[in-house]
Write a structure and sequence with these properties.
Layout: E1 36-40, H1 46-53, E2 60-63, H2 66-75, E3 80-83, H3 86-99, E4 107-112, H4 135-146, E5 151-160, H5 169-181, E6 184-192, E7 200-201, E8 203-211, H6 230-234, E9 241-242, E10 259-260, E11 290-291, H7 312-318, H8 331-340, H9 344-362
Parallel strand pairs: 1-2, 1-4, 2-3, 4-5, 7-11, 9-10
Antiparallel strand pairs: 5-8, 6-8
Helix pairs in contact: 1-9, 3-4
Catalytic activity: a 2'-deoxycytidine in DNA + S-adenosyl-L-methionine = a 5-methyl-2'-deoxycytidine in DNA + S-adenosyl-L-homocysteine + H(+)
Keywords: Methyltransferase, Restriction system, S-adenosyl-L-methionine, Transferase
GO molecular function: DNA (cytosine-5-)-methyltransferase activity; DNA binding
Length: 364
């Protein structure tokens, strides 16, 4: 199975206007007065990247996907990244992991977004009793367990809009009420990645919960200027390599993840590249932002040329990942990681807003 191949080649231009320079990671200055962050359902680390860039330390991250955890280890070498099922760990198991990395009585924050398939509107067969819908309750139970030893200053919870739909209303209300009962003031925001410099119409619910009676301000992520269209994000890139078992690092241009599968559908050979869009065959437009960038396992969107699907790297850029970020795993695993990630620039805006809210409390 194909894995990420580490290589860097100078970019080459095609007939498209030049794209803007991809987001660059800056070495953040760790701010030791900030709470340490525990990341649950961390995935590849899009939300973690945002908190890391704002100076938060992330000593522990947990996810069920072994490929995502390999990615996390590669990109966050100072974090203890653990591949484990939180349902099996239960709050006691998470507590044990945290106490191994964070001194008792420390101030901490808990961030993450449980798998959203059970709440997704794209999942037309979703039911209120989907087992995955119990994960928000587990999330609350973990926070409550950590409060026994740590001062949990904030909690950030991210999920799809469908979590507020009528059939999931009881689960959503229990989540908000549960945070309140654990001693947090909750701010609810519907955020679109396009408003934060990410060329993608991706809307999500973010609950930011700050510890009560500390004088903390409301968490208000500030909008950021940035890329607006597919063209700006990937227009300059050369063609990716198509996967074969003999593919080596030296064969891949630009970035380790700039590869995709051979186009096999007869629709890719249509001379004018025109065909009807479908759920798993959605062609992007150069002059518009991307819809939600990926879904399923191999159903990544079609390149604007109409001749192939996006490369993994192109999907990463449409999610706002920095050039330095590399995904591990096979195609399905990499697509899943891109699909599930919080866009890093949005993650950074959330982190900056949490930091600003904490600073407001210090001034009082």
């Amino acid at each position: 199975m194909a894995t990420a191949l580490t290589v860097r080649h100078k970019n080459t231009q095609n007939s498209r206007p030049a794209a803007k320079v991809p987001l660059k990671s800056q070495k953040p200055v760790v701010q030791h007065d900030l709470p340490k962050v525990v990341s649950l359902f961390c995935g590849a680390g899009g939300l973690d990247w945002g908190f890391h860039q704002e100076g938060f330390q992330v000593p522990l991250a947990v996810d069920i996907s072994e490929a995502a955890v390999r990615t996390h280890k590669k990109n966050f070498p100072d974090t203890h990244s653990v591949a484990a099922d939180l349902i099996q760990l239960q709050p006691a198991g998470v507590y044990e992991l945290v106490t191994g990395k964070v001194p008792a009585k420390s101030r901490i924050g808990v961030i993450g977004g449980p798998p959203c398939q059970g709440f997704s509107r794209a999942n037309t067969t979703s039911q209120a009793d989907d087992p995955r819908n119990r994960l928000p309750k587990l999330y609350l139970d973990i926070v409550e367990k950590l409060q026994q030893t740590y001062t949990v200053e904030f909690v950030v919870f991210e999920n799809v809009l469908g979590i507020r739909d009528k059939k999931h209303a009881a689960t959503y209300k229990a989540l908000v009420d549960g945070l309140d009962s654990l001693g947090f003031t909750v701010t609810e925001k519907e955020l679109c990645a396009l408003d934060f410099g990410v060329p993608q119409n991706r809307r999500r619910i973010v609950l930011s919960a700050m510890r009560k009676n500390q004088g903390y301000g409301e968490v208000r992520p500030k909008k950021r200027t940035g890329l607006k269209t597919v063209l700006e994000a990937i227009g300059e890139l050369p063609a990716p390599k198509f996967f074969d078992r003999k593919l080596t690092a030296a064969d891949i241009p630009v970035h380790a993840n700039h590869w995709t599968m051979q186009p096999k559908s007869p629709r890719f050979s249509n001379p004018d590249g025109q065909y009807a869009d479908g759920r798993s065959f959605k062609r992007l437009s150069w002059e518009e932002p991307s819809p939600t960038v990926a879904f399923g396992h191999r159903e990544i969107h079609v390149h604007p040329s109409g001749r192939r699907r996006l490369s993994i790297y192109e999907a990463m850029l449409l999610q706002g990942f920095p050039h330095s970020f590399v995904l591990e795993g096979n195609l399905s695993e990499q697509v899943e990681q891109v699909s599930n990630a919080v866009p890093p620039p949005l993650g950074r805006s959330i982190a900056a807003a949490v930091k600003h809210a904490i600073a407001a409390g210090k001034k009082k």
